[in-house]
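Work through what follows:
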Amino acid sequence: MRKGIGLIFISLVGMFQLHAQDRITGESFATRSVVLGQNGMVATSHPLATQIGLDILKSGGNAIDAAIAANAALGLMEPTGCGIGGDLFAIVWDNEAKKLYGLNASGRSPESLTLKYFEKQKSTKIPSFGPLPVSVPGAVDGWFELHGKFGSKPMGEILQPAIDYAEKGFPLTELIAWYMNRSVPFFISRGFPNIEDTYMGQNGGKLPKEGEIYKNPYLANTYRKIAEGGRDAFYKGDIAKTIGAFIKEQGGFLSAKDFAKHKSEWVEPVSINYRGYDVWELPPNGQGIAALQMLEILEGYDFSNIAFGSAEHLHLFTEAKKLAFEDRAKYYADMDFFDVPVEQLLSEEYAASRRAQITDRAGRYEAGEISAGETIYMTVADKDGNMISLIQSNYRGMGSGMAPPKLGFMLQDRGELFSLKRGQANTYEPGKRPFHTIIPAFVTKDGKPFMSFGVMGGDFQPMGHTQIIMNVVDFGMNIQEAGDAPRWDHTGGASPMGAVSENTGTVRVESGISYTTIRDLMGMGHRIGIARGVYGGYQAILWDDVNKVYHGASESRKDGQAAGY
C-alpha cells in the first residue's frame, strides 16, 4: 500500500513539472525560436497552408490574397477545425490608409425556424448536431468581401493551390489525423448521411492515418465553381439549392432563400489601451470584448511584482474572467437585435467597479448593472506592411454532421449557441446571428501595427487573448514564448446560452503550472482540474518597426508553422 501511494505521488508531481526544452536561450518552456522575415510572414495551423500563403506573397500577392488561399487550403487540410460550411471574422491593417478594418462574416439563422418550434418540442437547448443548429455559412462571402476591398490576384489563382491539393492529395499531419479518425467515425455512428462518401469514399473507402494521402475531389469541384462563378455560385446557384434541399430532407429549415439573403458586415473594431498598447477586437455577436474587459480589470494590478504562473497571477486572472463572462452571458448578442452597451462595458469606470469586487478568495459574481468550441486561426503580413488577423470555424470541430451530397464539406452548427430562454439578449430569433466564440485580435502601439494574433478554443479564446497580451506586455516574452507558455482556463459560470453560475467553477491547468501554484490556489478556494486539447491554435505576427522585420510564431500544440522570407 505504501509503495502504491508513493507511485501515485511521483506520478502527480511529474504531471505538474515544467517540461523544459533544454534550449540555451529564452524561456525554458519555449519550443523554438521566433521566425524572422523582412518581406512577409504567414502563420497557420498547417505547414502546407503556410507554404501556399508564402507562395502567393512571393508571386506578388498581398496579405489578403495569401490569407484567402491559406484558409481555402485549411478547409481541405484541416476539416476538423474549419471549412466553407462555417463562418469567418477578420481584422485587416491597411498600411496605405493606416487604418484597421473589421469584417463580421457570420451567418444568420433560418427565416422559417421560430422559437415556438423549439418550445413545442419542449427543447431546453438547440441540439449540438443534425439540421437544427445549422446557420448560413458566411466564410465564402467573407473571402469575397475581403478580396473585393483589398485583394490583388484573381480569385481563380488564389484558390488553385487548394484545388490542386484536393485533387492530387496530401499527407495527413499527426494531430489532424488523430482528430479525423475520432470525428468521422463518430458522425458515421450517428447515422448522418454522406459522411463516408465525403471523407472516405474518395480515399479507397477508408480514412487515412498520419502520413497517408488524403484527397477530396468533391471539394476541388466546389472550389472550382466558386473560383469561376464568384460568391453567387455558392449563395445563389446549385450549391445553395443542393444544401437547401438536403437540409429540408433531414428535417431542418435552412433554405436556398436564406443563402440568397446572406451578407457580411464591415464593422469598426473596438479597443482598450493596456499599458500603452491598443488591443483591438471586433464587437459582438462575437466574444472579443470579453478579453478587453478582462484586460481593463487586470490593468489595475502591478504585475511587475507578480510572477508569471504564480497563484496570485492565476487568481487575479480567473476572477477577472468570471466578472467579464457574467457580462458576456447577459449582454453579448447580435447587435442588429440587441443594443449591446459596448462603450460602458469597456469603460475604465466600469472596470474599476468590477475590480473592486475581487478579494483574495475565489468568488462568485453576477453581471454588472448597465443602463442602456474547434477553430483555425491564421495571420499574414506582406512586404507593403498590410496585415490580416483571420479566424474561421465550423464549431464543435467538424460541425453539425450535415455533409451535403458531393460538395466535399460539412455545415457548421453555430445555431447551438442561441439561448432558448425568452427575453435574453441571445434568445433565438429568425434571421439572427448567434453568439459567436471565434475572435481575431490585433495590437497597435502609437498608431502603428504591433501584433496580429489569435488563439482558438471556444470559451478559452478571450482567456487566451488575455494571457498572450499579458505574456508579452507584463512578462516580457517574445511571441513564440508567449504561445508556448503554460496555459490555464476557467470553466463554469453563466453563458449566453442561458446557463447560470452555480458555484465558483474550476480552474483547469496545463502541466507547466507548478504544484505550488495549484496548492496555493486550492487554499484560496479554487477547484482545480486538468483538460487536454482546449488550449491550442495560437499564431502570431509581430512587426518590429525599428528594424523593419516581421516576427512569426506558431502553436506548438498543433501541426502548424510560421514562415517568412
Observations:
- The two ends are 59 Å apart (CA to CA).
- Residues 45-79+102-266+401-412 form one domain.
